[in-house]
Specification:
The chain is an alpha/beta fold. Helix content is 48%, strand content 14%.
């Protein structure tokens, strides 16, 4: 009896969907033709233009595309799809039921431009867009199976060089996230430092979103390209926005008007700290301030002019003073989470012979490459989105041996290997031979070039340590032994080699693809 009732409810909701959504009947026909079963039609209670559909794929499609869980479809009757609509899909998958496939979704929309919007977000959640206006037209229609195959073959989710903003595209780093959570909950500040493209900004993005989801007051600033005055003003304005968004009355400020615009009649440098104090008093808890490219505030190592870098560093020193003063007075202050390549701004006690007032302001956290199981999760999950399989343990072993778990280098190798896929073959089991050929490629945008760039970046920041590598990895065993004994006896001389994952704890290469570049 229960089954009959459920079927009746499904039929009612399905009929309502078809009557209200342009192209809805044709979409259901597309599902039937492939043998897919829609299990639920849910009208969004917050927006009547949206319907959520839960779809079970037929067995042959489940096996071919590895879609064994239910596929989520959003029907959005918007003339124009905005990025936030795609974020809504990703958010529902992230927080939704365990039975939903986390690596694939469908968007039914009358906006023909939605496909290009999704394509620009490669590397994030793969979303198949279906133009409902096209379904209403005449002529031959492309079946749903062919549409899924096309999106998997044409989008390279490995070829991503920009920081990840979408939680569905973030892999691993569970220990790091847990450690940052623990530090912030205890009122500590954290600095995240690591190799170029090791995932620092992506980790910052993930933790920022994660903390905001826990209703923490969160502000994000990218220090690169900011003057000290812009840093001060942006921080004040974002705190003001937090207060207004939470419904709290904004205090009277010298530097901002009631609606949060700059008050040009007031001196920002004179009043910004008083105004910051007033804003912090109104926030529901400690402010969590996320700052990227923090090393740009270290004079002499910054891309900014010397005077501008010094001015930014003074701002950070003033923030430390705010933290200390408020903590001494029993008030909530600021928890800083920052990221960069060079930790000198917090690691060195002196700057030009004078005390560095930011010394040990944050707890240092070094982002070495991913653990093997995390790298494997990333490789297989992204491969699934492209109709690829990494079932052979030798392929995973090869990737970890050559690239040590470095996320960008690993993805570059997988991207290059994908080009060896036989035309439109889905699923394709990636071969060890394809990965080896990818490593041997020369020229721009190849794995080897990216390895060279990572080594050059480390050499730029830590030249003395990089100079030790030819000795540590020497083919002369006695020379290698002497260098490693020296490194062990003077650990500070080569600390970042281990912390950044260039070497393992015994000074052997962690990124083995780097060895030939060092010894050439």
């Amino acid at each position: 009896m229960a089954g009959t009732h459920n079927q009746q409810v499904l039929a009612e909701h399905k009929a309502r969907f078809e009557n209200r959504v342009s192209g809805g009947r044709q979409f259901n026909k597309l599902l039937r033709e492939m043998g897919a079963e829609p299990n639920r039609f849910v009208e969004d209670p917050r927006d009547g233009r949206r319907w959520w559909i839960y779809i079970t794929m037929p067995e042959n499609v489940r096996d071919t595309f590895d879609l064994h869980l239910e596929v989520l479809c959003l029907s959005a009757s918007y003339d124009r799809v905005e990025p936030r609509t795609l974020d809504t899909i990703a958010e529902r998958l992230r927080k939704g039921e365990a039975r939903l496939d986390p690596d694939f979704a469908i968007l039914l929309t009358p906006d023909a431009g939605a496909e290009n919007l999704v394509r620009r977000r490669r590397g994030q959640l793969p979303i198949l867009t279906i133009d409902s206006s096209e379904l209403l037209g005449h002529g031959a229609r492309i079946g749903l199976r062919q549409r899924i195959a096309r999106i998997m073959v044409t989008q390279d989710h490995y070829d991503l060089t920009k920081p990840i903003t979408e939680p569905a595209a973030f892999y691993g780093r569970r220990t790091e996230v847990r450690d940052i959570d623990f530090a912030l909950d205890r009122g500590q500040s954290v600095g995240i430092f690591g190799l170029r493209k090791a995932g620092k900004t992506s980790l910052l993005n993930f933790v920022e979103n994660h903390r905001a989801d826990k209703d923490r007051p969160v502000v994000r600033l990218d220090i690169s390209g900011l003057t000290a005055e812009m840093f001060q003003l942006n921080l004040l304005q974002k705190c003001h926005e937090l207060l207004r968004a939470g419904g709290a009355p904004a205090p009277r400020l010298a530097t901002l008007t009631r609606d949060g615009r700059p008050n040009t009649a007031a001196s920002l440098s004179t009043y910004w700290l008083n105004d910051l104090d007033a804003l912090l008093d109104g926030l529901p808890g400690r402010l969590e301030l996320f700052v990227d490219e923090i090393d740009q505030a270290w004079p002499g190592r910054s891309n900014l002019e010397e005077d501008e870098a010094r001015a930014l560093m003074r701002c950070l020193i003033q923030l430390r003073g705010v933290v200390q003063r408020r903590e001494a007075g029993g008030k909530e202050g600021i928890g800083l989470v920052c990221a960069g390549v060079d930790p000198a701004i917090f690691e060195r006690p002196l700057l030009h012979g004078k005390d560095n007032l930011l010394y040990k302001f944050v707890r240092l956290s070094f982002l070495s490459p991913m653990k093997k199981d995390e790298m494997q999760e990333m490789v297989r999950s992204l491969g699934k989105r492209m109709g690829l399989r990494y079932r052979d343990h030798e392929t995973i072993d090869f990737l970890y041996h050559e690239f040590g778990g470095h996320p960008l280098l690993t993805r570059k190798a997988c991207s290059a290997a994908t080009r060896k896929r036989p035309t439109d073959e889905i699923p394709w089991h990636v071969t060890l031979e394809a990965l080896r050929e990818a490593l041997e490629q020369r020229g721009p945008n190849t794995p080897r070039t990216e390895v060279s760039d990572v080594l050059d970046s480390f050499t730029d920041w830590f030249g003395d340590e990089a100079a030790m590598l030819p000795l540590l990895w020497s083919k002369d065993e006695s020379e290698q032994r002497d260098a490693r004994e020296w490194a062990e006896s003077e650990p500070e001389m080569a600390a970042h080699l281990v912390l950044y994952g260039i070497t393992d704890e015994k000074w052997a290469p962690r990124i083995n693809a780097m060895r030939d570049l060092v010894l050439k």
